[in-house]
Amino acid sequence: MKPGHPGFGLAIALLSVGAGCASTSPKQAFRDAAALVEARTGRKVVWDQAGADDAAVAKTLRDLLSRELTVETAVQVALLSNKTLQATYEDLSVAQADLVQAGLLQNPVFSAAVAFPVAGAVSTGMGISVSQDFLSVFALAARKRVAEAELRAATMRVGNAVLRMAFDVESAFYALAGAAQVATMHRTVLDAEDAAADLSRRQHEAGNISDLDLANQEALDEQVRTDVVRSDADVVTARENLTRLLGLWGPASEYRVRVPLPELPAVEVDLEHLESMAVNRRLDLAAAREEARAASRALTMAKNFRFLGAASAGAALERSPEGYTVAGPSVSLELPIFDQRQAVIARLEARLRSALAREAALAVDVRSEVRLAASRVIAHRAVVDRYANVVVPLRQRVVALAQQQFDAMLLGGYQLLQAKQSEVHAYRELIEALRDYWVARAELERASGGVVPVATPISRPPLPSGAPS
Predict the structure, then answer these.
(1) CA gap 452, 270 in Å, rounded
(2) Mean per-residue pLDDT, 448-460
(3) I need a labelling partner for 345 at 20 to 30 A (CA). Which of 41, 61, 104, 444 fits?
(4) Which residues make Cβ contacts (< 8 Å) with residue 187, sequence separation at least 6?
(5) What is the homologous superfamily of the domain 6-448 according to CATH?
(6) Domain residues of the chain, as ranges?
C-alpha cells in the first residue's frame, strides 16, 4: 500500500485513535480502591509514587509518630508507609496495562522483496506490501470487556489487601497495648515485693518471722521478678510485630503507643445481620465475582471466534524484472482445519468452573468466619465481664478480709501476701481478657469486611492494690 493510497491514511488514523485513547496510568483504579476502603473504614489511603505529594506524606508521618499512637493513628501510619501495600498497588498498574493492551489494534505488517536478474531478465524486480489483521478489530470490544473485569477484580483485591493490613495493625496494636499494660503492672508489683522482701529480711534478723516465712517471701519476690522478665519479652515481641506492619525502621521505630487498653463498649452491637453485610461488602468475595465474570467473558469470546483464525487484508505493489508494475489488494485467511480452538475453549471452561467454585467456597468461608468471629467477641466479652464483676471483686474482698485478720494477728504475713498476689494475678488476667476482646473485634471487622461501630465504653471495677492505674 503506497503512502498516497486512501487505505494507508485510514490505517494510520485508526492506529492514532487507538493509541490516543489509551492510558496506562493506574490512578483512577487506585482512586476506586481507595474509595472502597474509605467507605468501609473511613480511612484514607495514599500511594507513594515519588510524586509531588511525597513531602506532604512524610510530614504527616512525622506528625503522627511524634505523638502517642492510638489504634486509629497506627492504622493510618501503616497505610502511608507499609511497603508491602505499596508493592500490592502495582497490581493495578499491571491490570491497567493489560486493559490498554486489550484495546490496541495490532500493528500492520510491512513486507518487501527484491528479485535479482539471473537469466533472461533485463532489470532487478521488487515488491512491497502492507497488511493488517482485520479480524482482531472485531474481537477488540470483547477483549476490552475481559480486561475491564480483570481490572475491577484487581481493584477489589488491592482494596481487600488494604483492609486486611488495617485490621492486622489493629490486632497488633491491642496486643502491644495489653502486653505493655501487663508489664507495667508487674513492674509496679515488683517494687512492692522488693520492699516486702527487704522488710521480711529485717524481721527475720530481729527474730520476728521464721525461716519458712522468709523463704516464702523471697520465693514470691523472685517469681514476680521472673514475671517482669517474661512480660518485658512479650512487649518486645508485640512491638516488633506492630513495627513490621507499620513499615518503620531506624529512629521512626521509637514510637510510643497509648495505654491502657480501651474499656468494653457499654453494649454490644447487633451481630445478627453481619453475615449478609459481610457477603455484600467483603472485597475478596467481590474480586472472586469479577474473576468469574472475566472468565465467562473470555470463554464467550473464544467460542464466538473459534472458527475465525488469523485473517489479514492489505495491498501489494510489485515491479517485475520484465519492466511492468502491478498493484492490487491482498488477503490471507487461516483455515481452521486442525485447530478449532478446542483446547483453548476447554481450558477456559475449566477456568470458569474453577472461578465459580472458588467464589462459592469463599462465600461459605465468609459466613463461617463472621459467625466464628462474632462468637469469639461474645465469649471474650463474657470473660471480661466475669473477671470485672466477679473474680476481681472477690479477690479484693479476700485481701480486705486477710488484712483484717493480719491486723488482728490472726493471719501470718505470708498468707496476706498470697492473697494480694492472687488479686494481682486476677487483674492481669482481666487485662489479658480485655486484650483478647479487642483482638477478637478486629478479627470480626476483618471477617465482616469493614468497621463495626462500638458504643460508649463502660468503666472498669476499681483496681486492686498494687496494680497500676
Answers:
(1) 10
(2) 72
(3) 104
(4) 228
(5) Outer membrane efflux proteins (OEP) (1.20.1600.10)
(6) 6-448
